[in-house]
Amino acid sequence: MSGHPAPSAAIPFPRLRPWLLAVPVLLLVAYLVLMDNGAVSQAGTFLHELMHDGRHLLGVPCH
């Protein structure tokens, strides 16, 4: 035992790329469903109802 910590393994960029693309999209979807309250989803009745039902599905109070 040398007393030095083991060097950390670098994660190759190609393995990170899908996550770097997915995280902003998932955050946008989470914002639209949880926090939008009609600011963006007023574009159409279908989108507004979809976000409204998504809030109820996740148990987030909206009214």
Automatic annotation (TrEMBL):
Protein name: Cobalt transporter
Record-annotated membrane-spanning stretches: 16-34
InterPro entries: CbtB_put (IPR012667)
Name of one Pfam family that matches: CbtB
Keywords for this protein: Membrane, Transmembrane, Transmembrane helix
